[in-house]
Amino acid sequence: MQRDAPPRAPAPAPRLPAPLIGAAASSGGGGGGGSGGGGGGASAAPAPPGLPGTTSPRGPGGGRRTEEAGSAPRGRKWPWRRKWRGRGGAWSAAAGPGAGAAAAAAAAAAAAAGGGGGALEAAMAKQYDSVECPFCDEVSKYEKLAKIGQGTFGEVFKAKDRKTGQKVALKKVLMENEKEGFPITALREIKILQLLKHENVVNLIEICRTKAGASPGHATAPGPEAHRKYLTSEGMHTGYPGVSSPYNRCKGSIYLVFDFCEHDLAGLLSNVLVKFTLSEIKRVMQMLLNGLYYIHRNKILHRDMKAANVLITRDGVLKLADFGLARAFSLAKNSQPNRYTNRVVTLWYRPPELLLGERDYGPPIDLWGAGCIMAEMWTRSPIMQGNTEQHQLALISQLCGSITPEVWPNVDKYELFEKLDLVKGQKRKVKDRLKAYVRDPYALDLIDKLLVLDPAQRIDSDDALNHDFFWSDPMPSDLKGMLSTHLTSMFEYLAPPRRKGSQITQQSTNQSRNPATTNQTEFERVF
User: Within a 10 A sphere around the Cβ of 399, how many other Cβ atoms?
Assistant: First the structure.
């Protein structure tokens, strides 16, 4: 007698893909943030050796570095992840601050990518019914005091905790034009800031939200008619301010909460009453290079070094800020170059390799910005104020010499080297042009080494910290005493423009696009 075939087990429920935090796909998402890390029912992973406990190359007292800092270990378990309980069971989020919004955005991206058919869409829709950014506190716990910054990626406010009175900085993530969910730049910034824990890097406390479906300008969520009118047939948001789509319940309402710093360097330099002594300049640059050393050892590029992104607390502690353009980097493998975007770094601080189209770059791009900032400590104004990329290259050639294969091997292989009409016949005169401002010979020498055209020959942060500039009299001194005489916060956003000299006319701006046909004196105004 023939037996009947055993009944087949029902197919397991479709698995939702884990969210990818950041631009580069890796195992895991963002690191644990703030003090205490995650929430949502799962404790944050222990801090790996070599991150928060990494020894700085220079301590507060200026001592020499005695041990190497570690880089981020491979295979780290990030707090932002989705895990399954059993085969086909429900998923749960083990999350750090703000993971609810991040998970929702990632799931929306997974749905848009397709795959899994109707069952997957139904499963996602069911899960979204219960997603209300549960891991984020509401931003109403903070009282906004003043607007202190504005940029391409959001606004920054000074605020205080209504219960404790703690001063914080709120950075609003602009999402009105985002149709794909949570902005990838914000996800990358969150991931990086939760990874980096150092006294010279700004501290991310938590992530907050406004009430789901409402913006600060709406007391309640818009009604069904507003949703019907401003949502497309696919259910994606098309731009109505304050309206959240089915795939992004927290649109237009995410805030990153940071420790408050009373000043930024651009604001301090714009105030003629603020005078830095040589020993105080040494301390500023020591802390700045210390922060760069730390992030570079942990394979992170800042990619927007400028004076406005260097914050200083009332106690004189410098912190690198605004990691909105930052990203992880790696060494090229198997002779395959990296292909990073070169549309980064504010123009006045952008290194020549990026202006020439280089996409396989590394830490030297941040060291060029550090050199510009160091010179700015004496000139009180950005030293190369180009109007276009062509103009900026001309100013660089005026100061650092003409860009040729003799001084920069293989520069002729860069994408834009032959396409741009570069200034010819210029000699390097960094020290000659700056000596009227910078009287210390060691300072001139360090600036000269930071502003080297060839990134392969540019000094790195470790060697810069060991430069004689920091080990000759006068030694670096604390900033607290000088800052104690300035009780008002100073930020670039609140200060008058620092651009030196008269505004260039439109005619000279157009002429600067073709340096070969322009009078040489047009490019003499370097700073």
Answer: 20
From-to residues of CATH 1.10.510.10 in the chain: 263-523
Q: Which CATH class is domain 137-259?
A: alpha beta
Q: Do 380 and 269 touch, CB atoms closer than 8 A?
A: yes
Q: What would the DSSP string read from start to end of 290-349?
A: HHHHHHHHTTEE-----GGGEEE-TTS-EEE---TT-EE----BTTB-----S--S-GGG
Q: Which residues of the chain form CATH 3.30.200.20?
A: 137-259
- Give 515's DSSP letter: G
Question: Active-site residue numbers?
Answer: 304
How far apart (Å, rounded) are the C-alpha atoms in residues 191 and 235? 28
d(CA 417, CA 402): 12
Return all residues near 76 (Cβ < 8 A) that are at least 6 apart. Answer: 28, 31, 45, 48
**For residues 55 and 17, what is the distance between their CA atoms, to the nearest angstrom?**
37
Detail the residues annotated as belonging to a binding site for ATP.
171
* pLDDT one digit per residue (tens) for the chain, 527 residues: 455 555 555 544 444 334 333 333 333 333 333 433 333 433 444 444 444 444 444 544 444 444 444 444 444 443 433 333 333 333 333 344 444 444 444 444 444 444 444 554 455 444 444 444 556 788 999 999 999 988 667 789 999 999 999 999 999 987 766 666 778 888 899 999 999 999 999 999 999 988 655 444 443 444 444 444 433 333 333 344 444 444 455 455 789 999 999 999 999 999 999 999 999 999 999 999 999 999 999 999 999 999 999 999 999 999 999 999 999 998 766 667 889 999 999 999 999 999 999 999 999 999 999 999 999 999 999 999 999 999 999 999 999 999 999 999 999 988 899 888 889 999 999 999 999 999 999 999 999 999 999 999 999 999 999 999 999 999 999 999 999 999 888 998 888 776 654 333 333 334 443 443 333 433 444 55
For domain 263-523, the CATH superfamily is Transferase(Phosphotransferase) domain 1 (1.10.510.10)
| 491 Rama sector, left if φ>0, alpha if ψ -120 to 50, beta otherwise | beta
